[in-house]
Amino acid sequence: MSSVATQTLGWVATCVFVASYFFTRASSLRAAQMAGALLWIIYGFLIDSKPVIAANALVLAAAAWTAARPHSSSPTTA
Predict the structure, then answer these.
(1) What is the DSSP annotation of 32-77?
(2) For the chain, what is the largest distance between any 2 Cα atoms, rounded to a whole number of angstroms?
(3) Chain-wide mean pLDDT for the chain?
(4) CA 65, CA 37: separation in Å to the nearest integer?
(5) Residue 67 pLDDT more than 90?
(6) Rounded distance, CA 35 to CA 56, Å?
(7) Nearest to residue 71, comparing CAs of 32, 26, 36?
(8) Which is it for the CA torsion 41, 64, 29, 35, positive or negative?
(9) 5-13: long-range contacts (C-beta < 8 A, 24 or more apart)?
(10) Contact 70, 40 (CB under 8 A)
(11) Is 32 within 8 Å of 16 (Cβ atoms)?
């Protein structure tokens, strides 16, 4: 992949990440987090950066786990 395409992918990943802060529905937020993390993982492979790959693999796993877990309709108290 060309340097320009790689840089563009990094900027797109950044935009998706920043946009995720504006979602109000939890399901949309998780979807944006997963999409952004996946883009960052691809970018990490392209620039050969293990920390970028690892950090975003953790974000992707956390977002997928919270999206898949059952949600209660009322908050729990400790």
Answers:
(1) HHHHHHHHHHHHHHHTT-HHHHHHHHHHHHHHHHHHHS---SS---
(2) 52
(3) 90
(4) 14
(5) no
(6) 10
(7) 26
(8) positive
(9) 6/43, 6/46, 6/47, 9/39, 9/42, 9/43, 9/46, 10/43, 10/47, 12/39, 13/39, 13/40, 13/43
(10) no
(11) yes
Question: What does the pLDDT average to over 18-22?
Answer: 93
- Residue listed under structure tokens 């877990």: 69
Residues 78, 76: Cα–Cα separation, whole Å = 7
- In tens, the pLDDT along 23-32 reads 999 889 999 9
CA nearest neighbour of 38 among 69, 8, 63 = 63
Query: What does pTM read for this prediction?
Result: 0.82
Q: How many alpha carbons fall within 13 Å on the CB side of residue 53?
A: 8
Report the pLDDT averaged over residues 51-62: 97
